[in-house]
Structure formats: structure tokens, C-alpha cells
Design a protein that fits this description.
Shape: elongated
Helix content: 55-70%
Order of helices and strands: HHHEEH
Largest sheet: 2 strands, antiparallel
Strand content: under 5%
Number of strands: 2
Number of helices: 4
Strand order of the largest sheet: 1-2
Structural class: mainly alpha
Distance between the termini: 21 Å
Radius of gyration: 17 Å
């Protein structure tokens, strides 16, 4: 059941991140790059009239990429729960990278300016999921 939930959840998750984009929350750091967002609506939670990394759109891209990967793995699934575990690990890795570009400081840090709460949770998730993935993968091979 978790494999079915994974594919549906990644689609819903991407819609949620589009909500972040429309609300202006989860905004990025200031950037001089050519890829940026500039919020102008006074109701936005992001700083107005600044060039910001489009971290919300980075997240949507990450999630849609994960969905494509899950659909590719679905054809060659080796054990129950594999797609769900792949979703968790890919999202945790991607979220850790996107956190580098986030500018909304209220999300908090475990180690100031080095490790955010989300990155710490991602590290824990990656470790746990790798253990489960390895265990389930080995038990499936033993059953064959």
C-alpha cells in the first residue's frame, strides 16, 4: 500500500509546494543569478521587490522528477515498500540541497548557519531508510 501512497503523495506534495510559491512562503535567499523570483504582492510572506532563489519551484521540480523516477522503478519493483523508500530517500537528499538556498530563517537551525532542522531530519531519515531498504532487499533475495 505504501508504494501506491508514494506515487500519489509525491503528486500532492508538489501541489502543496505550488501553494508555497503562491503564498510567498518558503522563499529563497537573495541571488544575483539569472534565475530568480521577485515578489511584489503585499500579502506575500517573502521580501518584496528582491531577486530571490525560486526555492518553491526547485521543490516542485524535485518532486516531479521523483515522480518520474518512481514510475520508472514501478515496472521493476523488487519488494513491497520499495517505491515508498525511494521517495523518502530522494526527497530527503533533494530537500537537504534546496535548504542551502532557502532564505526564510524561521525554519530554524540545529547548528547556526550550517545545519537546518530540515537537513538534520533528512540525515536521520536517510540513515533509517537505507537500513530498511537494505533489510527488505536482502530478505526478498532470500525468499527467491
Amino acid at each position: 500500500m505504501l508504494d501506491i501512497i508514494a506515487v500519489a503523495a509525491v503528486m500532492l506534495h508538489s501541489f502543496g509546494r505550488m501553494g508555497c510559491f503562491f503564498a510567498g512562503c518558503c522563499y529563497g535567499l537573495l541571488t544575483d543569478g539569472s534565475l530568480y523570483l521577485e515578489f511584489t504582492n503585499k500579502l506575500s510572506q517573502a521580501p518584496l521587490n528582491e531577486h530571490l532563489h525560486p526555492t518553491q519551484l526547485y521543490s516542485v521540480t524535485l518532486l516531479l522528477s521523483i515522480m518520474v523516477i518512481l514510475l520508472m522503478f514501478k515496472r521493476h519493483k523488487r519488494f513491497s515498500g520499495q517505491l515508498f523508500l525511494i521517495y523518502i530517500i530522494l526527497y530527503a537528499i533533494g530537500r537537504s540541497v534546496i535548504e542551502i538556498f532557502r532564505g526564510d530563517e524561521e525554519r530554524g537551525y540545529i547548528i547556526q548557519d550550517l545545519l537546518t532542522n530540515s537537513q538534520f531530519i533528512s540525515i536521520l531519515l536517510i540513515a533509517v531508510v537505507i537500513c530498511y531498504y537494505t533489510r527488505l532487499s536482502k530478505s526478498t533475495k532470500a525468499d527467491l
